[in-house]
Amino acid sequence: MPQRGPRADPAWVCSQLLALHPQAPDAPLCVAFSGGEDSTALLALLAQRPAVRPRLRALHIDHGLHADSRAWVRVCRATCRTLGVPFTSRRLELERTRGHSLEALARAARYACLGAALRPGELLLTAHHLEDQLETVLLQLLRGSGLPGLAAMPKVMPLGAGWLVRPLLDVSRAALRAWVHEHGFSFVADPANADVAFDRNYLRHEVLPQLARRWGSAARTVARSARHIAEAQQLLDELARADVARAADGAALSVASLRALSLPRRRNALRYWLGGHEVPDARRLEEVAVTLLAARADANPSVSWGRLRVQRHAGRLSVEQLRPAAGAYEVSWDLRRTRRLSLPAGAGQLALVHSAHGLIDATALPPRLIVRSRRGGERLRPRIGGPSRSLKSLLQNASIPLTERQNLPLLLDGDHLVAVADLWVDARWQSAAQERKRLTVVWHRPA
User: Fold this and answer.
1) Mean pLDDT throughout 71-84?
2) Residue 102 contacts by C-beta under 8 Å, 6 or more apart in sequence?
3) How would you classify the pairing of strands 29-32 and 56-62?
4) Crossing angle for the helix pair 218-247 and 263-273, to the nearest 10 degrees
5) Which one, of 164, 165, 166, 162, lies nearest residue 121 by Cα?
6) pLDDT digit string (tens) for 346-382?
7) Mean pLDDT across the chain, nearest whole number?
8) Alpha carbons within 13 A on the beta-carbon side of 183
């Protein structure tokens, strides 16, 4: 059964803008213009309204990931010239990082660039539509996301100096495609959108057609569920705001007030309190909500992740932004060229040497490692079949002096810790009993 809903119509799109943002009648408008069918439809629909066109511009982000990307820029510029809309293009220089999703990397870089390009009060309009919303909900479900993720894409949210607005979330992909073809507009067809190696493309091409054949209204009903979830999250935020206000002790929180809350409510309050920073993953949030608050009254425990640390002291919970130590460093080590590395910041020298008793499986190592100082929150599994341990606890149990910890070199493959100087090797890279090609790390400590 075909999806029923709003038609692609200039008057309807403009009415949506008015309903979504009070400043829409006078605000400058910027369309995030990829040149594909969807964004071409949005730009052309708006450009057909004489009252809108003088306030309208198009911004294209060239990710530089495809050989034809510069040709796509020319197609976008030609479309804008036809529509009488000012056009700007910005090119990104993306570095593919091992262990990171290229989809996520490109998306984060794109939004950072779009946000930085917005003028004060300008509305950035994207062409996300009904099926995009369905894909987002399914992806978040498969990632085990909480309510904020399952609420999917909001129609309006702050971005940079302006606002991000998605006026087409109730319109189907088919309606936009039909409008573009009916009016004969040229558009860019990115072959990456057909690559089912990407999660979103796999859902789009392999899963959603099956869902649509069985449940014709799936996109619209799932979008309705996402709106219900968004409302539930709003209520949780209001409850958390009240709980944080009652527990507030200056910028800190009272441990006694937090303990008085049920565990789910305590997690909700802590998640909201940390929302202005880098929110921790579920495991570290549990450490803050349970372990940190249950510690002895005379203890001063802390939990760190990324650049943040939550500290308990004198009955108060405080959060601080960690600054890199004066001797912080990060370098790349190309093992194909050399097995020796002089470390910056006076941290000594590293060597990987062959040894019959070495812990590292030489065949498992990548050709390049990252070597850096500690940042906090690192973990590794020092024994095959054993539990994962925080580096902080390992160092404390081994009584490693504080002065040595500051210079301690960590060897990483992407985000995965391979070895901690010559102290520990993660189980993933440890050599099996029959393995002959073994390496050991030698750290020549600074004087």
Assistant:
1) 92
2) 65, 94, 96, 198
3) parallel
4) 90
5) 162
6) 788 899 998 888 889 888 899 999 999 888 888 999 9
7) 87
8) 21
CA 303 vs CA 266, 276, 285, 314: distances in Å: 16, 17, 9, 16
* Domains of the chain with bracketed CATH: 10-216 (3.40.50.620), 227-321 (1.20.59.20), 330-444 (no CATH)
Are residues 164 and 59 in contact, defined by beta-carbon separation less than 8 angstroms? no
Q: What is the pLDDT of residue 101?
A: 66
Task: Provide the pLDDT confidence category of residue 149 given band limits of 50, 70 and 90.
Answer: confident
Beta-bridge partners for 351? 340, 442
- What percent of the chain clears pLDDT 70, i.e. is strictly above it? 94
**Residue bearing the bigger pLDDT, 196 or 1:** 196
Residue 232 has what pLDDT? Answer: 94
Encoded amino acid at 243, one letter: D
Q: How confident is the model at residue 436 (pLDDT cuts 50, 70, 90)?
A: confident
Residues 338-348 have pLDDT tens digits of: 889 988 877 88
Residues 390 and 379 sit within 8 Å (Cβ to Cβ): yes
What tokens appear for 347 in the block?
A: 């941290």
